[in-house]
Structures are given as structure tokens and as C-alpha cells.
Specification:
The complex is a heterodimer of chains A (about 300) and B (about 120). With about 300 residues, chain A is an alpha/beta fold. In chain A, about 50% of the residues lie in helices and about 15% in strands. Chain A is built from 14 helices and 8 strands. In chain A, strands 3-4-2-5-1-6-7-8 form an 8-stranded mixed sheet, with helices on both faces. By secondary structure, chain B is mainly alpha-helical. Helices cover about 50% and strands about 0% of the residues of chain B. Chain B contains 5 helices and no strands. The radius of gyration of chain B is 23 Å and the shape is elongated. The two termini of chain B are about 40 Å apart. Classes of the chains: A alpha/beta (about 300), B mainly alpha (about 120).
Chain lengths: ~300, ~120
Amino acid sequence: MDKRIWAIGGGKGGTGKSFVAASLGLHLASLDRPVLLVDADLGAPNLHTLLGIKASHPDLGDFLINAVPSLEHAAVETPYRNLRLVKGSENILFIANINHYRKLRFLRQLRQIEAPNIVLDLGTGSSFNTLDFFLSANPGVVVATPEPTAIENTYLFLKSCIMRVLKLYMDHYKIKDLHQRMLDQIEKNSQSLYGFFKSLMESDRAYGTILYRALRGFRPCLVMNKTRDERDVLLGRSVADVARKYLLIDMKYLGAVPYDEDVQASLRELRPFYVDHRDSAAARAIRQMSEELAYSIEFTLRTPPEIRLPDA
Amino acid sequence: MLKRIEDWNYYELLSVERTASQDEIWAAFQASLATYRDGSLALYGLVTEDERALVLERVQEAFQTLRDPEKRKDYDLALLRHTPYVPQKAPFRRSVGKVEIEDVAPTKGLWARVKRLFSRNP
């Protein structure tokens, strides 16, 4: 069975990561396949509140401090069919800074869990833990809003992901001296990533190819949330295009989720928006998003091998 | 496709296929204008003003060429002579041979020291 781990992340707070994660979880659960929602926002979890569920044990914290044997045991049933939730931990304050081994255990268990769809709701910012969760998932979805602050942080988040991916490969292939060179160069300007690869290709083509392939293997998706008009929708397309050109990554624009006043109202009533407003434009956009992605993944699997034309 | 923005051909610049119709090129041109216009949000925090102006100029140049069937034909021929056309791969592909975080041995900490002690080539 095909298993998919979705990670919903992004650089800025308040862009609607948890909203997208909750709605996506509810939509995928309505397709009659079990879904596990995981609140991996270690610092400020509130996915349960969006689903109208009270904080209680067991939660992710219990798993991380070994109070429950596995992540499966930390999941609780929700009032919604096919949907289970691993709540974020509110009680254990130091849990936001989990160490490397706890992180690995968490990632390993995520992969072992038997659920066709796992949706991770990630925290704000570019801490190593957040980046690693994001990079382990496929697809990773970046949520942004049409504001300069959000756009700025989206690029910062993507750059951090890129650095993390490249560092991972450098460590794996034991080419650590490159790391400082990359850091020095990437700070400079927007085309610096290109400059870094260009000079690397000239000095060491083999490593350059490895790292470039690693970079191209990072394929995040973008969702523009809280859009108010056609211009905002286009902005998402532009951001993905700019990321493709300047950050050299294969970014896919999944679409826009229109701004809806009812999201706030649902939140105040502690009811999930997606359940109460199934026919709203925002809910339709969420459905379309997941179908779009499912389609392009399906499409990929059936794509015949590339045919190269003879050199002219 | 590791190229500077200045080296992108007109199709790459507008993010369209080489087989794109006139309507597709028009739509792509409008989208590119929105991306690279003065004060565009999409470039915020990433692209400088000089670079933006340069790309916008090239976008307009690209559209002027591709909208005219005659000019486009000449451009296509020149392009084909220079680089053969390879159709775009699927829009979303799975990563093959991805290195997972677990594959990378930690460099710090007790476990790393113990492992190094017993590894064959420390």
C-alpha cells in the first residue's frame, strides 16, 4: 500500500499551518482511508484545539519521554471517522529541544506506523528539528500568506531546508570542508546558490553532481493561504517560480486557500472548520490541493522513461 | 539545468514548454510581469532591484520574440541548433537515492566516540 507522510510547515507563525493540517487530515479521513494527525509543533502545539478536542494524555511528550512504548500508543481516537491524533505536549516545557536520538526514534516510528496517510503539523521557524521533520516527509507543504513578512520567511525557510539537505549529503559523503565554503557564499546574494554550484562543478565535478542531485531531490509544495483576490493567487505561482529559478529547487504550487471569516468563528466555537463548512471555497480548495498532488504523484509513476533526442 | 538567469532561454524564462501555444505564452507573460513588476511581493527578501529590472527587460524581450510567429521560428531554429529539445519530465517526481537523516552518523556525543573506536577506518 502506498504510504504518504505529509508535513505542513513554513517560516512564519499564523499563516495557517495547523488549519491546513487539520483540514487536510479531515479531508483525507473522509476518503475512507485511516489518517494519523501528529502535532509536531513541539514549542506551541494547538492542533487538538482546532479539532475541538481537549488536551489530555497520552500525547507526543509521553512518547518522547518513553512513558508510552510507541507512537501508536500515543495516538488517541477523535470524534471523526478514520482520524486519529497524536496531541502535542503542553505540560513538558523542555520538550521543544529534543535531542538527536529522540528525534530519530520519532522519525523511525513515523515510518513504521501503519496508516496510509500521516499528516505532521510542524512548528514555526527553522530549528533543526522542524527542518528534519519537514525533510523526512513526502510531500512537504509550505504554507505562506500574501504578506511581505510571510514571503520573506518562506524564502528563509526554503534556504534553511536547502542548507540542511546539502549539509546532510556533505556529512554522508564526508566532504565537510565544503560546508563553510557554502555558508560563506550563500550569504552573499540571491544568485549565490548558483555561484556555489558553479564553482563547485569547476573544482570537483563528482561532488558537485552529488550535491546538485540532492538539491533537486528536495521537492517542496507551496500553498498560499488567506488569499483575498486573484492577485494573491498569482503571487503563489510567482513565489514558486522564483524559488525554482533562484533557489534551484523543484517547487510545486498546489494552489490557494481563500480567506474565510468563518475560520475564526469556527475556532471560537472549538469546532473544526472543514466539518462545518464543507462546501465553502476554502474547504473546496483544500480538497483540490490534495487531489492535485495525488494526481501528479500518480502521473509520475506512469511516466515512461525519458527519451533523449540525438544531438543536433 | 544549472544556469544563470541571464542564460535562460526565452521558454525557460517564461516557464513554458517549447510547444506552448500563443495563449499559453500570453498567460505566462502576464504571470511573469506580475512576478517581476516594480515592488513585487514575490521577490521580497530574495532578489535585488537591479536583478529584478534586468529580468523584467528579458521577459519583455522574450514575449516580443515569441508572440511573432516568424521571429519565433527563427529563434526556435537557433535554439535547436544550440541545444536539443528534451521534453519536460513529470512535474512531481519521487526522490531516488535520498539520504535519510538516520544514514548520517553523528559527529558529536558519546555514541559517535564509541562507534569511531570500533570502526575499521577511523
